[in-house]
Write a structure and sequence with these properties.
Chain A has helices at residues 2-9, 28-38, 48-58, 65-75, 79-88, 108-112, 115-126, 168-180, 185-197, 200-210; strands at residues 100-105, 139-144, 156-158, 161-163. Chain A is of the alpha+beta class. The radius of gyration of chain B is 29 Å and the shape is globular. Classes of the chains: A alpha+beta, B alpha/beta.
């Protein structure tokens, strides 16, 4: 409600950024990858989803307004349209997430196999509530719908890795292992999704151009 | 594919509510239902946007006739807004099931709708309110707490967003995507949180933002200007037209107690479909401008003092006649404004020609002051602007030359964009700086400012090389044209204009390959240093490409102000009588007016202002124009009005020009009087009086009429209808534009 009151108090809207005001942060590889992705479709608009994954990787796991603006600029779409797409899908992060996103499935099979107990355990262990990030910026705890792996319930996902048949002991081990790791699960997932969409020829070309 | 202009639609037999009828194939069922007056309620469907079927309000039962005569019904009701009519379709709009479905849809839409109708601007003219009244449930079964969201979120200076009222029909989002093309609004989030927004709540600065207010079927998008100023039931709605530019958009002007409160679009499929631009919709209320001239004034002791009308008339006539008798007919001059109606302009030139016996009359504020008859109409063989708005959809190439279309002709911009978006019409833009039209143009020629002529010559030369010989065969004077541009090779063009040879070649090829082309020329042509040669060059481009006599192609030199076309038609020119007659052909006019007319051509506006400086013109009458601010050379105009001996200014506002007046006369603003305007496609359209005149203001035609009466002692015209009748007598093409024929949508006059 406070936010709403605040929004109403502002009577003047800032101007939308002009193209030259947008800081472009895509790396050279990312630009090449985007070009390759765009070439898969009849028009640039169609490459919107993979382009947002690219942006999520390039901007450290979060689609900031600048990231959205950059995607819009590179695909020649309007800012609002790209923002609408980015806010529609839950896997695009609009806020900064922890280094590791712990996505615990609470759908039917996992729930029956005790995923809520695991969630509660995690909340207690990490000292955060569902949807929050630890103060050290390492872990974000979220609840997700079915991960399509009911045979191994309860399941959780960290980046592009599935952790199957989870238990309290396995959870402890996982958390310890993650604390020692220097991977960034959110960007790794984004990178994996981008890579799936690139053809082998694209990848080879981009790699060769980089040498 | 461009939409053919005269295509005969294929008709199919359908049946709605037991009534058999024929409709064009592919027409949406929701429109077909209107033909039998079956009311199908809608929220998301809009006639001028693509159908999406989001709101499910327009559900109907549909079936198809089988070969054995039976009707096979679809198992579920269908959204009639996305269902094209086809042979043998049978629809029912009022079955028990449909009535129940409508109730359910409305109950759903109202789950989170705040129902704050008593404080909502839309209350009284709200589709949601009306549909709920007619089709909705009497109560809701939902007792849960409603969703709460920001209630008055200003998106721009014009548009206020109330997120609680939004029913997510998507009309506004689709408008910005499909029609205006800036896509500044989009749906954010998903499911129950879906809301239309701008990017990061930045300003909604579309040039057509006002339209979303009108198409919103609830009170989610409201006008900040009209907010809480009136309720729909205490405003008076008057149909009229907008006089902001030469597009002549049809509008409704709503007033409350004689005060204009808002402007809404009025549907005219030929002109503005159902859109307005922000410049027109949110135009300042000129009727209540603080600097209006309230009563006639005469300069006494260095200051303008209010007087009676008859005193002002007496002084004007005394001075004008006096100076004319002393210095000849060239001692008086008249400058007509393009904001005046056809009736005003006609009587103004009659006042000068018949009353003062002078041809010193002009309306042009542009650098081009040549003879359009000689420069354009004769070589082209027709009166330009050749095309009407609808032709944009039928042509295969739109060539925008020297015009920032979105600014100069907003409705032409929208229609050109629609032609590209819907019908795949190609566009080519030539303008010194990037413009909005470049977004949909296939090719853009950005040239050095002022080098339009070099570009046009280069294009013409390239075209002569590209066009097949058989196409060029019948062109008269082809060798002369060839010689005139022989030296304009691509290298020279690049040096002159900065347009690379490759780009020029591509553009020329585009033109050469197009079966038809509409050339839209704007401000940069009118104000070019060598406008006459440039117009000649554009005429030749039109001729060699075979567009001069094509219906869906041609040259369109678009007037820049509301009635620029009317001023030419009405003969507010020094060398041309009403109806494009030269001064030599004055006999028919003399017969109607009952007087002899001068044969000596008058001064064009530049020469007129120069003569004021040199004091050979002693009396200048400026009506409805503000040359000091609007002339292409404001310094010349300012010096002229300062130095002229006796200056009469008749205008709505105390303009920069009126400051120098010796006599200032108050004229009615466009909504305070009636009349006709001729828009850029030669369509004469009526305006009606919406609000009472301010102070002692009179319509311009009445002022001229009263002056004429005092001069000629002939029975004056008592209303604009009579003036128009007289125009029809002297210019037969306008006989078709008599008031009885104009109706609501206007008539496009055709040369006889």
């Amino acid at each position: 409600m406070d936010r709403n009151v605040e929004l109403i108090r502002i009577t003047e809207r800032p101007k939308p950024p002009r193209p030259e005001e947008i800081p472009l942060r895509f790396s050279e590889t990312a630009v090449q990858e985007l070009d390759a992705l765009v070439s898969h479709y009849p028009d640039k608009k169609s490459a919107l989803l993979p382009a947002l994954w690219l942006a999520q990787r390039e901007y450290g796991g979060v689609l900031t307004p600048e990231a959205i603006a950059e995607v819009a600029l590179r695909l020649e779409r309007s800012y609002a349209e790209v923002e609408g797409v980015a806010t529609f899908y839950t896997m695009y992060n609009k806020q900064q997430m922890g280094k590791f996103m712990l996505e615990v499935c609470t759908n039917l099979s996992c729930m029956l196999c005790g995923s809520y107990r695991l969630l509660e355990y995690l909340e207690e262990k990490l000292g955060i509530r569902l949807g929050e990030t630890t103060p050290d910026g390492l872990f974000t705890l979220t609840e997700v719908e079915c991960l399509n792996n009911c045979g191994d319930a309860p399941v959780m996902q960290v980046g592009d890795v599935y952790c199957r048949k989870m238990s309290v002991e396995k959870m402890d081990a996982l958390i310890d292992q993650l604390r020692g790791s220097d991977e960034h699960s959110v960007t790794r997932l984004a990178d994996a999704i981008v890579n799936i969409q690139l053809s082998a020829a694209d990848k080879a070309r981009i790699a060769s151009e980089h040498e | 594919m461009p939409r053919p202009k005269h295509a005969e639609p294929k008709l199919v037999n359908i049946e709605i509510n037991g009534i058999a009828l024929q409709v064009p194939e592919g027409e949406y069922l929701v429109d077909a239902a209107k033909r039998v007056e079956a009311d199908v309620p809608v929220f998301c469907y809009h006639k001028y946007m693509e159908a999406v079927g989001m709101c499910r309000m327009c559900l109907v039962d549909v079936g198809y006739k089988q070969p054995d005569g039976s009707v096979r019904k679809m198992p579920k009701p269908q959204a009639s807004c996305t269902l094209p009519c086809s042979e043998g379709m049978v629809a029912w709009t009022e079955t028990e099931q449909i009535i129940k479905d409508r109730k359910a849809v409305l109950e759903f839409l109202l789950i989170n709708h705040p129902l704050d109708c008593p404080i909502c601007d839309r209350g009284g003219e709200c589709p949601l309110q009306n549909n709920t009244q007619f089709y909705g449930p009497s109560t809701s079964r939902y007792i849960e707490i409603k969703r709460h969201l920001p209630k008055s979120l200003p998106l721009s200076d014009h548009v206020m967003l109330d997120l609680e009222r939004c029913i997510q029909c998507g009309r506004c989002v689709r408008f910005t995507e499909e029609v205006s093309g800036d896509a500044q609004l989009a749906f954010l989030f998903r499911g129950a949180q879906t809301q239309p927004h701008t990017f990061q709540l930045t300003e909604f600065n579309s040039r057509f933002s006002g339209n979303v207010i009108e198409i919103c079927p609830v009170g989610a998008l409201t006008s900040r200007r009209y907010r809480f100023r009136a309720r729909p039931w205490d405003i008076v709605t008057q149909k009229t037209i907008c006089t902001g530019c030469s597009n002549g958009c049809n509008i409704y002007l709503d007033s409350r107690g004689g005060e204009m409160v808002r402007i809404n679009a009025r549907e005219n499929p030929q002109v503005n479909e159902t859109w307005t631009c922000d410049k027109g919709k949110f135009q300042p209320n000129i009727m209540r401008a603080p600097n209006r001239i309230q009563q006639p004034m005469i300069r006494k002791d260095g200051a303008l003092q209010p007087v009676e009308w008859h005193e002002a008339y007496a002084l004007i006539l005394e001075r004008f006649q006096d100076e004319r008798d002393k210095g000849g007919v060239n001692a008086v001059a008249g400058f007509a404004g393009q904001r005046m109606t056809n009736e005003d302009l006609y009587l103004f030139q009659k006042l000068f020609r018949a009353g003062f016996g002078s041809n010193n009359i002009d309306h042009r504020l542009t650098r081009y002051q040549g003879d359009l008859n000689k420069d354009l109409y004769t070589p082209l063989g027709t009166f330009a602007p050749q095309n009407e708005m609808r032709d944009l959809e039928a042509t295969s190439l739109i060539f925008i030359f020297g015009s920032d279309l979105i600014d100069e002709q907003p409705m032409v911009y929208l229609r050109a964009r629609k032609a590209w978006h819907r019908f795949g019409v190609k566009a080519l833009v030539a303008y010194p700086v990037p413009t909005e039209a470049e977004h949909f143009a296939e090719n853009a020629l950005r040239y050095q400012p002022g080098s339009e002529l070099a570009l046009a010559s280069g294009l013409l030369r390239a075209l002569l090389g590209l066009l097949p010989a058989e196409k060029l065969d019948g062109i008269e004077g082809l060798e002369k044209i060839r010689d005139s541009v022989a030296s304009c090779d691509p290298g020279w063009v690049e040096a002159q204009t900065g347009v690379a040879p490759g780009v020029l070649e591509r553009a020329a090829r585009m033109i050469a390959d197009s079966p038809s082309m509409m050339l839209l020329a704007g401000e940069k042509v009118w104000n070019h240093r060598e406008a006459q040669t440039l117009i000649h060059m554009l005429t030749q481009i039109t001729r060699v490409t075979g567009n001069a006599d094509k219906e869906e192609g041609g040259l369109n030199l678009m007037p820049l102000a509301a009635n620029g076309q009317g001023a030419i038609d009405m003969g507010a020119l020094p060398n041309q009588l009403p109806g494009y007659r030269s001064l030599a052909e004055k006999a028919s006019l003399e017969a109607v007016w009952g007087c002899t007319l001068p044969t000596e051509p008058g001064l064009a506006s530049d020469a007129m202002f120069q003569a004021c400086l040199e004091s050979s013109v002693k009396c200048l009458y400026i009506a409805g124009a503000n040359p000091v601010a609007e002339h292409y050379d404001p310094t010349l105009a300012a010096r002229a009005v300062q130095s002229v001996e006796f200056l009469v200014v008749q205008d709505v506002l105390m303009t920069e020009t009126a400051q120098y007046a010796d006599v200032a006369l108050p004229a009615c603003a466009f909504a305070e009087r009636e009349g006709t305007y001729t828009n850029f496609e030669r369509r004469a359209q009526r305006t009606w009086q919406a609000v009472p005149p301010t102070g002692e203001a009179k319509p311009d035609w009445r002022i001229f009429s009263e002056l004429l009466l005092r001069l000629t002692q002939q029975t004056p015209a008592f209303n604009p209808r009579e003036v128009m009748k007289e125009v029809g007598q002297v210019f037969p093409a306008y006989a078709a534009c008599a008031y009885d024929h104009l109706k609501d949508q206007g008539v496009r006059w055709q040369q006889g």
